[in-house]
Amino acid sequence: MKRHFARVLLAVVASLWFLPALPAHAEGESVVISGVIVDLSQAPIANVEFTLTAPDGSTQTTVSDATGLWQFSVNQTGGFIVEINPESLPSGVGLREPDRLTRSVFVFNLNNSPAQVQYLTGEGPKRASFTERALQLTLDGIVLGVTIGLAAVGLSLIFGTTGLTNFAHGELITLGGLGTFFFNSYLGLHLIPSALIALVLCLAIGGYAQDKLLWKPLRRRGSGLIAMMVISIGFGLMIRYIFLFFFGGDREQFLQYAGQAGLQIGPFSITPKMIIATIIGVVLIMLTILWLTRSTLGKASRAVSDNPALASASGIDVEKIILVVWVLGAFLAGFAGIMMGLNQGVQFIMGSDTLLLIFAAVTLGGLGTAYGAIVGSMVVGLFIQLSTLFIPTELKYVGALVVLIVILLVKPQGILGRRERIG
After folding, report:
1. pLDDT at residue 417, rounded to an integer
2. Is the CA virtual torsion 156, 158, 163, 167 positive or negative?
3. 65: helix, strand or coil
4. Domain residue ranges of the chain, discontinuous segments joined by +
């Protein structure tokens, strides 16, 4: 009797052990979640994108065919979420319920497919053609190129005259943007005088005081360029978190011109504030070029950039030239920060986020050359914007850096850089 009871108990335990491994449904069993998407005239819409999220979190993506039919095959029960991508609808077609992009579908069993999912369409926005988008992105790329170029010219001049790779240069951009925001929002001044005062601060603190109190003593002590570069990294981090402490981490807008409507000029759309800011930026870059080529100090800065020892031997005050370059670089970077603030708001990391693009522009154009920095900035700005015609917007900065790598593989000295023999 005990032996018979033990056999029964063993059989029950074995059945419980293997029970979880048994499938809930026969292998290969599935149902279809589907729908048909049509326009106002009941004509089918092809190539509309739909995404299905399963109860286990996995996703599938499909598009509607020539008959407007889209479908997913599922092999599990539970609650599913279907989401339509409204950007994939054709020009002039939109959703009647634009706030309801998702639909819930519950699959009770795998014997019967659920009812079709319905999305009702109506009139929607006219979508720009490829050519219209390309023209608009070209304009956006020029504006971005001018913004990057303002900061890149200063960084390139500093590198050319001192050899310093300044990783704190992005904080000069932030100083221009947040300084303008401080006088505009905290003290209630209009944006224009706020910007002017912020630029004076960039000149005085970011340029003059920074070189006098930090970099000049280090040069006199004979600090190596690697040590100074490391110091610039630490100095940049310190300034960045000082900005965070006083201004917080949120993105802020200036009180004036924040919600300005764009002007439609032919195929281009641009706000008046960016037209004026871009024109001023171009004028500043042109004045910098004229200063380098026509003025005595500009020619002296080029001489220092070419050969500091020979320039000093010929009677040029190298330290004075370096100080002037620091002041000019801080001024240009500060105005770049104001342009960025007008376009996308100000934040404590606005300069550090742009620093990689600035280095890319300077390296691409040729280290130490102001002209190369301008050319490199335009290439980077245009490529960043135009690349979104073919790749997701989130990857546009990656594409610009890929172009940088490719060009430097072909021409290591940069577009306008000079070949140097080593050894």
Report:
1. 61
2. negative
3. coil
4. 29-123, 130-410
- As a whole number of angstroms, the distance between CA 83 and CA 155 comes to 47
Q: What is the pLDDT of residue 112?
A: 80
User: Can you give the pLDDT at residue 126?
Assistant: 73
CATH class as words, domain 130-410:
mainly alpha
Q: CATH homologous superfamily for 29-123?
A: Immunoglobulins (2.60.40.10)
Question: Using an 8 Å Cβ cutoff, are 171 and 352 in contact?
Answer: yes
Residues 72, 34: Cα–Cα separation, whole Å: 6
Residues of the chain with pLDDT under 50: 1-2, 5-6, 8-26, 420-423
DSSP conformation letters of 145-165: HHHHHHHHHHHHHHHHHH---
Q: Which residues are CB-contacts of 20 (< 8 A; sequence separation ≥ 6)?
A: none
Predicted local distance difference test score (pLDDT) of residue 84: 94
The token duo for 56 is 């286990």
The pLDDT value recorded for residue 115 is: 81
Is residue 45 a contact partner of residue 69, using CB atoms and an 8 Å limit? Answer: no
> How does DSSP classify residue 1?
-
Burial of 409 per CB tally in 10 Å (0-12, 13-18, 19+): exposed
User: 210: Cβ–Cβ under 8 A, 6 or more apart, which residues?
Assistant: 326, 330
Nearest CA to 191 out of 76, 272, 134 is that of 272
CA–CA distances in Å: residue 113 to residues 75, 105, 171, 316: 11, 10, 59, 85
Q: Which residues pair with 346 in a beta bridge?
A: 252
Contact 136, 267 (CB under 8 A): yes
Q: How far apart are CA 351 and CA 281, in angstroms?
A: 17
**What is the predicted pLDDT for the residue at 207?**
93
Helices 169-181 and 318-344, packing angle to 10 deg: 50
Q: Helix or strand or coil: residue 411? A: coil
